[in-house]
Amino acid sequence: MRFTRRGAIAAVAIPALAAVTVLTACAPGGSTGRTSGEAGDTLTLGMTADLPGLSVLIQPSYQGWFADAVWDSLLICDEFGKPSPQLATEWEYNDDQSAATLTLREGVKFSDGSEFDAADVEAALTAAGEVNDRFADLTFESPDPQTITITWPQPIPTMDVILCEPNISSSKAYESANLDTTVVGSGPYLYDADASTQGSNYVLKKNPDYWDSDTYPFENLELKVFTDNTAGLNALKTGQIDGILADASTVEEAKSSGKEVVTLRGVTTRLLITDHNGEKIPALGDVRVRQAMNMVFDRDAIAEDLYRGYADPAYQIFREGSTAYLEDLTEDPYPYDVEAAKALMEEAGYADGFALQIPFFEGQGHDLLFPYVTEQLGQLNITVEQVNLTGPDAYTELLSGTYPVPLWQLGNYGESLQDIKDYILTDGIWNVSHQADPTIDALWQTILTGTDEEKIAAQQEINQYVIDQAWFVPMAYPDGFYAYSPDISIPTMSDFAALHPLLRDFQQN
């Protein structure tokens, strides 16, 4: 199974639930203060989950400040998915958007001393294609070192967003045996491995040769890992860090302690029932079973109790205001009714239920959600086995198809086409069973070739179809929070997934 920094892990959007936490005043590894720079010169951010590793190919965009710091991408997207120049200064697409011709920035050097050119783009996207289907089977043409045409095997209606995804390292780095241990980038900061402790804190210094240095005003950047919510809040309150994600259990305390808080609404809590053909678990191939699984969840109670009122019940997976969102879907298509759900299971011939393995990750806000999901599915005699996934291969395993019903709080994009690509298409990263559906395929072809009106209608038809077929169990649209010190400012929120500030959003007061 392939995955992507801004696809698989990009969608790893996790505003945690109101979990009970253990009081502690330091990050893992015992770090209790800033390790570099004077006050005002160092931006220190808390991360609620550790990096999966140092390789350029496995960096998350959720809390992806490390990747933002050390690597550039070809383009850089704003909160609406509109691109601006980064390593590419000019770009144009062919008529069907299956090819992009880029003019590359001159004078850029990587931290290994090599100069950036088209060969690095080809090496980066070729390597990305080994782990990410979005970049598989590309062809390249470079008439000169600063120009490259990239051609996909099929049209890409979200080309702007796609070109904002991949981090670019040097071709030498991809050829070496040290990609997992040596960080080579051209970004605004340089990784200081000697001052860092993986799993605890990551220290970075300003890149003196960076072409857009003014956008990143801090001389030093430090990222500290806090897998415990209360520990992270305490670190913010005591000045160890300048900002961290908050949740329903910590946001009021953050406010009362004088911290600034921004609210974001960029995720949908959901089960993804990807084995809708029943190839791995036969029961899931019956729409009545999938509908029954929807009907045992009290969405109002989830929003009010599990999220302490910092959420709305979700009846669909798309973000409000996006093209695919159904404005007239104001009532739950699968109202909470356990007895009716049991009757559907019996009608389908699965009254005795079945076993279902669901992965669990620490630090992802599943502590209260997972037991609730287990209890509710248990009312249908669906026995949930919690499978703990850890380590650098955890996300790969999550998305391998081994577990056909992931539970996650996934990000929704401002552009719903990207949600369709990630969650619904046969090769979608989070459609982990990758089972074809002729209705979806036909509607996608309309999106590729139809008029503007037909494309809009096709997106909404896809949404209605997956609701009718119960491919998902949407539960809630939870609020996400980012708490930060008033000593810094966050004048913009440019994350396309509306999950948290990006590195370029943090500014000095």
Describe the protein's architecture and organization.
The protein is an alpha+beta fold. Helix content is 24%, strand content 20%. It is built from 14 helices and 21 strands. The chain has helices at residues 65-70, 118-129, 159-163, 171-175, 229-237, 251-256, 287-295, 299-306, 338-348, 369-378, 394-398, 416-423, 438-449, 452-468; strands spanning 42-47, 75-77, 83-85, 88-93, 99-104, 139-144, 147-151, 189-191, 201-206, 220-225, 243-246, 260-264, 267-272, 311-313, 354-360, 382-388, 407-411, 472-478, 480-484, 488-489, 507-508. The strands form seven sheets. Strands 1-10-9-8 form a four-stranded mixed sheet. Helix 7 packs antiparallel against helix 9 and helix 13 packs antiparallel against helix 14 (452-468). The model is unreliable at 1-39 (pLDDT under 50).
Number of strands: 21
Helical residue percent band: 10-25%
| Net shape | globular
**Helical stretch tally:** 14
Largest sheet, in brief, is:
4 strands, mixed
DSSP strand (E) fraction?
A: 15-25%
Taking the alpha carbons of the first and last residues, their distance comes to 44 Å
Low-confidence stretches: 1-39
As laid out across the biggest beta sheet, the strand order is 1-10-9-8
